[in-house]
Amino acid sequence: MNNVFRWARWVGVLVALAAFITGLCLPEAAQAAQADEHKLNYFQTSRVKIAGRNALRIEIGMTGGEPRYTVKTHSYLRQELVLELPNTQRGRVKSYIPMTNGLANQVRISEVGNSTQIAVELANPVTRDNYRISTLPAERRLKKPARIVLEIMEPSKDGAFSAGPGIKGKTIVVDAGHGGSDSGAVGPTGVMEKTVTLSVAKKVQNLLTQSGARVVMTRTRDVDVYAPNATGKQELQARCDVANRDSRTALFLSIHCNAFSSPSANGMETYYSAGSRNGQRFATLLNQELAKAGGLFNRGVKTANYYVLRHTNMPASLVELAFVTNYREEKLLRSEAYQNKLAAAIVRGIARYFQ
Ligand SMILES: [Zn+2]
């Protein structure tokens, strides 16, 4: 043992002694707080059913009396529930627990100052109705300590979806590109752009409405907005008019699919009008969410002189979901599940815009 280690050992002994003496001299309140300290010593997961819904039950046990906690739902965008346990140490519970149950992806446990944070990353957005937290006293017979019980339910069948409070009461105009006499681009197996844009637009409308937004659609059926076989300008101006005639309109979203002469062109991109800062922010958030959810090549956030972006009076973005002229992407675009994913991504982008 060299000198440095010998010194370190002596310093350690002195520190322990000082801590012991301080402990003896602590005022009563501080002593009580010390007695209330917890150490995690138990982590169990199980599958359960709650009101007919599949659920994941996580029990986290600790030494000491009844556990106390606060909850932060790290906004549904990050899909994370964070429990903060005051006067608690991580003890011998692992700091990272990966999960593959379809309801949670991982649990991370870390000490922050005097507390321990338990961050559970969910597989679905955190909504008020898909988790419950309770506590259980110690059960000596079962050798179980006092526990916090976190139950995470699968999303309810009625599709309840909440995009957070910011979206509530906002007027959002959703424009399904093309329609009626104008089919838009057509894919190799005949999928029409106007059909995809309307379907996705309706899904977006649905999710936004559930989140308390006021949604105005430029069209809800397979029709021209101005008139059949009108000029491009007439048709596009009619869509801008829907947005501009209501001064409450906070955002304008136009949904399209891309097309190119070569079937190999692929990917997603979002547009805004050059010089519009809010438009840029909106297009960027949409791009981030669509990239994450759709998994396509990200062609980026771009500016363009598109008519509907230039002639609307509020922040606006036009999204090109994918290339309908690309065989693989055409197949994705006509899939209901994929459309649902994209619609949810768009609504997440809109929710972030209002955060
Ligand atoms: Zn188009």
From TrEMBL:
One of its GO terms (cellular component) is outer membrane-bounded periplasmic space. The keyword Hydrolase applies. CDD domains: MurNAc-LAA. GO terms for biological process: peptidoglycan catabolic process. This is Putative N-acetylmuramoyl-L-alanine amidase. Transmembrane segments: none annotated. Residues 242-351 form the MurNAc-LAA domain. Keywords: Hydrolase, Signal. One of its GO terms (molecular function) is N-acetylmuramoyl-L-alanine amidase activity. The keyword Glycosyltransferase does not apply. Its EC number is 3.5.1.28. Gene3D superfamilies: 2.60.40.3500, Zn-dependent exopeptidases. Residues 1-32 form the signal peptide. It comes from Selenomonas ruminantium subsp. lactilytica (strain NBRC 103574 / TAM6421).
